[in-house]
Amino acid sequence: MNAIAALSPYSSSAGKANSERHTLSVLVDNEPGVLARVVGLFSGRGYNIESLTVAEIAHVERWSRITIVTTGSPAAIEQIGHQLERIVPIHKVVDLTLEGRAIERELAMIKVRGKGENRVEALRLAEAFKAKVIDATLESFVFEITGSPKKIDDFVELMRPLGLVELSRTGVAAIVRGPDAS
Amino acid sequence: MSKQMTGAEMVVNALKDQGVDTVFGYPGGAVLPIYDALFQQDFVQHVLVRHEQGAAHAAEGYARSTGKVGVLLVTSGPGATNAITGLTDALLDSIPLVCLTGQVPTHLIGSDAFQECDTVGITRHCTKHNYLVRSIEDLPRILHEAFYVARSGRPGPVVVDLPKDIQFATGMYSVQQNVQHKTYQPRLKGDADKIRQAVDMMAAAKKPVFYTGGGVINAGPLASELLRELVKLTNFPVTSTLMGLGAYPASGENWLGMLGMHGTYEANNAMHDCDLMIAVGSRFDDRITGRLDAFSPGSKKIHIDIDPSSINKNVKVDLPIIGDCAHVLEDMVRLWRSQDRKVDQTALGEWWTQINQWRERNSLGFHNSKEVIKPQHAVQRLYELTKDRDTYITTEVGQHQMWAAQHYHFEEPNRWMTSGGLGTMGYGLPAAIGVQMAHPESLVIDIAGEASILMNIQEMSTAKQYKLPVKIFILNNEYMGMVRQWQELLHGGRYSSSYSEALPDFVKLAEAYGAHGIRCSDPADLDRAIQEMIDYPGAVIFDCVVAKEENCYPMIPSGKAHNEMILLDLSDDAGLEIGSIIDEKGKMLV
Fold first, then answer.
1. Residue B475's beta-bridge partner residues?
2. How far apart are CA A58 and CA A48, in angstroms?
3. Which helix (H) or strand (E) holds A83?
C-alpha cells in the first residue's frame, strides 16, 4: 500500500556515495551576521562542517576569511560552493582541495597533567613534534602545537595516556602554494 | 543633491526615488515615525492590510504583475513574524520584495523589549538578504542597496530592519543612482562559447523540448518575446512550469501545456522521451521531475539560469549557461538567425507526430455533468467568459490551483500569480489586492478553494476600504481537496481532518464585508452567474458549489516517473475514476 510513501521519492541516491573532504576558502565582508549566514546555510541545507575558522584579514576593507572543511559527494561540494556564492556579502569562494596545492595548518593548545616518568615522556614527545611549552606548573604543561590536522591528531593521541586534561584547537586555516592568490 | 532629514523621511524619500507608488503595510509602535512621514506626503500610497501576511502577498501580487519591486511596511515583533510566510513564499518563487520592519530602539535590542524579536536572525533563512540598520549614516545606502539586491540576479525578498531611534535620528540623504553592490554583481550575459554549443545541439536535435519556468517571466517581457521567437524559428515544442505560464502563449501551436505532477500527458511524455531538453529559467523542482533517476533518461540537457546554484542541484545537466534568460535567448536567436541554422526537419516531423498522438489522449479531459458543476468546467467557463478582457488571475493552493493552471489559458506573462514553491494557502486574495492596486481598471480574479480563502479572508476589509473590485471565485467542494485526493489515493480514503466543516455562508460573508455574494450550484446557471460576477462593479465572493470528490488528473504520483502518469479513463461513460494507483497498475498508462 505504502510503496510510494515508503520510497523517499525525490531524494537522490547519488548524494550519499563517494564522500570527499574539501577545504573551502571564503572571502567575506566582515559585517554583522555574515558568519551566521554561512553557518545557517550549512545547517539549513544539511551540509557538514568538520572545521570552521574565521578572522578578519584586511582591517581597512573589513574583509574576513572563513575557512570551512566540509565533506560530501563531488556534486554536493559543487552545490555548497554555489550556495555560498549566493550569500550577498560573500566576495569569493575557492575550493582549495580542487585547486590542489593548498597548505593547511591548525594550532592547538593541550594541557597535560602528570608527574614523574609521564611528565618527562610528554615533554620528550612535545620536542619531537616541535610543540612549545607555553605554561608550566610542577604538575602540568600547556603545549602549543602547529601543524596539519593529522599531526595534531597524532600528538593528541600520544598525550592522552600521559594525562591529557584539556584541549583547544583553532580549526584549519589554509592557503594555496605559489606566488598567486587563490 | 544632499539634504538633511530624519531616518523616517529618508525611508519615504528612498521609496519615492525608487519609483515606489504603493506600499502595503500595517502600523505599530516601532514604525510610527515612518507612518508619520507617509502621512505628510502623497507620492507613496499606503495600503492598510488586515494582517501582515496579507501585506507580503499583496506586495508579491503587485511585483509579479508589474515586474517592479513590491514593498511592505510592518512593525517590530509580531508585525515581522506575521510577514515571514510571505517572505518565504517570495524567496521560493523569486519575487522581488523589500520588507521594511520596525525594530525597538538600538539601546533596547537584546533586552527582550516589548514587541522585540530578532528580525534579521529570524528572516536570514527566508530572505535573499537582510539588514539591521545601526546608524543613520548607513541608512540611505542600505535602502537603495535593498532595492538593488531584491531585483537583481535571481530576484527575492530583502528585509531592512529599522530601529525606532534610527527613524528619529537626522542625517544627510542623497539620491543614489545606479547602486553597485561591492560583492553582489550577478552575471547577465551568457558565455558565448556555450551559447554556440547550445545552438549546435539544437540544430542537431531530433526530439527537442523547451522546458521554461518562472525565470523567463522574471527576466521581463522581452524574454517572453525572445522565447516565442526562438520557438518560432525552431518549431520546437514548448512546455512550462506552473510559475512560467504565459511566457509562451497557450494558444501557440507549439504549446504542450504545463508539465509536472499535474501536467499534461504530452508535456510529460515529451520531457521523458526527448533527446534534447532546453531548460530556460526553470529549476528542476521535484513537482517537475518526479522520480529523479527516471527523469528524462535519454536526453542531453541545456540549462539557462541566472543562479549558478540551480545548475546541477537536482539534475545533472550537460550544458549549463549562467545568465539572464533575456540576454541568453537574445544571443541564441541572433546566432540561429545569423548562421541561418536549420533543424532536422524529418526527425522533428516524426517527433511532432508522436507528440500529436499523445495530445489525442486528451489528458485534461473530464466527465462533465448536467447535475453538478465540475470544477474543471467552472474554470473553463470562467476562462471563456473572461479571456477577451484585461484579466489577471491569482490562486490559492490546492486542487483549484491546478485546475486553474490546466484550464485557464494565459497568452501573456505577468498575468498569472500563484504560490508555486512554498504552496501557501491564503496567497490568492491578498495577491489579488496587490494586483488590483497596480491595475485598477483590470479584471482581477482569485480562483480559490473554500479552505484556502479562509486563511486570509480578513483582507476583504482591505478590498472594501480601497474599493478594489477583486473577484473571488471559490471552487467549493467542502474539502481541502488536494489533501482529500492524496488521502483517497494513498491513505485508504481515510479523510482525516480534510473535510471543511462549519463553513461560513460565503454569500452572507461577502455581504458582511460590504461585497457582493453569488452562489451557484447549477451547471445551467453557471454562465449567467459568472457574468453577474464580472459585471458587478465591486468586490465579489462567488461560491461555486462543485462536485465534492473530483480528483485532479492527470497526476504523476510522487516517486513515479513522467511516463507513469495516472490518467482519467475517459472511455468509461459511468465516469469511474481510478480508485487506487497502487492496486490497479493496469490503469496506469505507461
1. B449, B544
2. 28
3. helix A74-86
Exposed/middle/buried for residue B438 (C-beta within 10 Å: 0-12, 13-18, 19+): buried
Q: Which residue numbers in chain A have pLDDT < 70? A: 1-17
Grid cell locating B433:
489586492
- Asked if residues B139 and B131 have their Cβ atoms less than 8 Å apart, the reply is no
Choosing from B114, B350, B357, B511, the catalytic residue is B114
Query: Does the distance separating the beta carbons of B559 and A9 come in below 8 Å?
Result: yes
Range A103-174 classified under CATH 3.40.30.10: no
Integer Cα distance of B248 and B231 in angstroms: 9
**The one catalytic residue among B16, B115, B313, B387:** B115
**Fold identical between A3-100 and A103-174?**
yes
Provide the 3-class DSSP secondary structure of residue B495. coil
**Single-letter amino acid, residue B213:** G
DSSP letter for B106, please.
G
pLDDT computed for residue B341 by the predictor: 95
β-pairing, A20-29 vs A90-95, is antiparallel
Distance CA B233, CA B213 (A): 20
Which pLDDT band, with edges at 50, 70 and 90, does B557 fall under? confident
Assign B8 to helix, strand or coil.
helix
What is the CA B204 to chain-centroid distance, rounded?
Answer: 34
Question: Per residue in A129-164, pLDDT tens?
Answer: 999 999 999 999 999 999 999 999 999 999 999 999
- C-alpha distances (whole Å) from B52 to each of A48, A93, B27, B28, B501 are 35, 37, 10, 11, 26
- Residue A63 contacts B, CB cutoff 8 Å: no
Closest Cα in chain B, distance from residue A16 (Å):
14
Nearest CA in chain A to B125: A40
CATH superfamily of A3-100: ACT domain (3.30.70.260)
Whether B464 has its CB under 8 Å from any CB of chain A: the answer is: no
A60 at interface of B, judged by CB pairs closer than 8 A: no
Ordered by start, the domain boundaries in chain A are: 3-100, 103-174
CB contact under 8 A, A82 and B308: yes
Residue closest to A70 by CA, chosen among A45, A91, A107: A45
Q: Which of A10, A39, A84 to mutate to test the interface with B (most CBs of B within 10 A)?
A: A10
Residue of B92, B98, B124 to mutate for A, most A C-beta atoms under 10 A: B124
- How far apart CA B499 and CA B487 sit, in angstroms, is 11
**CB distance from B490 to chain A under 8 Å?**
yes
Round to whole Å and give the CA distance between B548 and B374: 9
Are A59 and A115 a contacting pair, CB within 8 Å?
no
Radius of gyration of chain A (CA): 21
- SS3 call for A13: helix
How do residues B94-129 score in pLDDT, each as one tens digit?
A: 999 999 999 999 999 999 999 999 999 999 999 999
**Count of all residues that appear for chain B in the document:** 590
Q: Residue B76 class from Cβ within 10 Å (0-12 exposed, 13-18 middle, 19+ buried)?
A: buried
Query: What is the rounded distance in angstroms from the CA atom of residue B5 to the CA atom of residue B2?
Result: 10
Length of chain A: 182
Work out the number of other CB atoms within 10 angstroms of the CB of residue A29: 15
Of the listed B9, B18, B116, B164, which one is catalytic?
Answer: B164
